[in-house]
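Standup notes
- DV: blocked on the single-chain target, sequence here:
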Amino acid sequence: MPKRNDSKDGNFKPSFEGANDFGYSKDDIRFTGSVAKPTIQYCQAMPRTFSAMRHEQILQLCVEGSLEARREALTRNVMAVDGIEYDEAVKVVNQMGRDNQHLFKLEYLPYHAGMGIALTGGFASFPLIFDKDTVLWFNERFVTTEVPPVEDLQVSNHNLRRCI
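- DV (later): unblocked, structure below
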């Protein structure tokens, strides 16, 4: 929870970043000139990495879908729960990622097996449709129905000559 400091005009100002936190004040010295351009000091204070950002910024970026911000939030949570420094927390989060990747192989196994079976069945169906010898063998072994006479087959004359 941020501390509140009294400003000169009597308004309360939350204190997050000390001298670099100019929010919620009327005298905003971050911008100069009539066309409000940022000052060098303000630009130098801008966070350039997720680890340099405030919790509120990280959480907002998490809500917006930033995976890097979510990783940073997890790292900070590991720091708070385990009571370890940032560099150690990064190692713990990296190990968590490796452990999760290892489990993905097992998790995706049914999908990969199903895709393999579907592709094998798809390729096996071509000779069962277009090759007369394979069709007759399959009919003899598994289907066991009588082959209709040539006059009853509904194929073009070109294909009929090839099948006979």
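- Follow-up: Strands lie at 3-6, 12-15, 31-32, 37-38.
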